[in-house]
Amino acid sequence: MAFHLLMWQNNRFEIRVPLLIYITVAFMLGTLFMVALAAFTQMAFIDDRNYPGGPNAFENNMFSIPVDDSGNAAFVLSNWLADALVVWRCKVIYQSCRVPIWIVMVFPCLMLAASVAMGIMFLIQVSTTNPYFTNNINFTLPYLSLSLALNIIVTIAIVLRLLTFRYRIIAVLGPSHGTQYTSIATMIIESAALYSAVSMTFLVLFGIGNAVSQVLLQSLSQFQTIATLLIVVRVAQGKGWSEGTAAMVMSAQ
């Protein structure tokens, strides 16, 4: 749907092409993750079912084989793309804010850089059997926690901005104006709240050692991709918040 809308809608070329590249890469990474996950699961439960200790021991001991490494790499790259998109949306939504944009964006950008660095450490850890990386620190929880913190902070920032704008519109123009930019559904989509909610649930369950966390982990990449594609769909439909939205809606008096 996102690809179709971007191809046939009359969006600006400088926006359409990067978004087409983005959704193509995001879809490919999401697909690669699922293929690698299915292949690794098949190896554990079917091909190497007689591995000493069973499938659980196989997955714990063979986490650094190429098929699992490719899935982990796809997951992390997809995560970086999703984080970068919500940071970009935050910049767009705060573009017309009275506060200088660099002040608003400095903290999310620093967190994004830290998330990339932690993701690299996570990939190194899961792709090697070196005791230095595997026995001292488990980078899984810190990496996912940092990514979640970034998404929550940006989500809150975007929702607060949209709520503030909603209040101003209602006060000046009445409740019937600007609803496509300030509705509850808009806030959920624009802020990628779907992914933040699923990620938070996973981290809580993972932190307490609940086995259900593994179910959410397998679907986390897909929720991430869906959340980003929903944002792209809104942009492609011309409903997404742009740098001139605030002035456009407030001038429609």
UniProtKB/TrEMBL annotation:
It comes from the Eukaryota. The chain crosses the membrane at residues 20-40, 99-124, 144-163, 184-209. Keywords: Membrane, Transmembrane, Transmembrane helix. It comes from Hydnomerulius pinastri MD-312. This is Uncharacterized protein.
